[in-house]
Amino acid sequence: MGAHNEKGGFVPPLAEKLVWQCAGCQTFNSTKVTKCKKCGADKPAKK
Ligand SMILES: [Zn+2]
C-alpha cells in the first residue's frame, strides 16, 4: 500500500494561469479581463 495522492497546495498552479485575485477585494477574475469585475481595480502587474 504505497499509493498516495499528491493533492497538496491550496490553489493548483493551473488555476493561477486562468484567474488572478484582486488585491483589493480578493475576488478572482478571469485573465481575460484587466480590471476587477467587482471593484474595478487594475490587475496586478506580472512578476
Ligand atoms: Zn477587486
TrEMBL record:
Matching PROSITE patterns: ZF_RANBP2_1 (PS01358), ZF_RANBP2_2 (PS50199)
Keywords: Metal-binding, Zinc, Zinc-finger
InterPro entries: Znf_RanBP2 (IPR001876), Znf_RanBP2_sf (IPR036443)
Domain of life: Bacteria
Domain RanBP2-type: 15-45
Entry keyword annotation includes Protease: no
Protein name (record): RanBP2-type domain-containing protein
The species this protein was found in: Sporomusa acidovorans (strain ATCC 49682 / DSM 3132 / Mol)
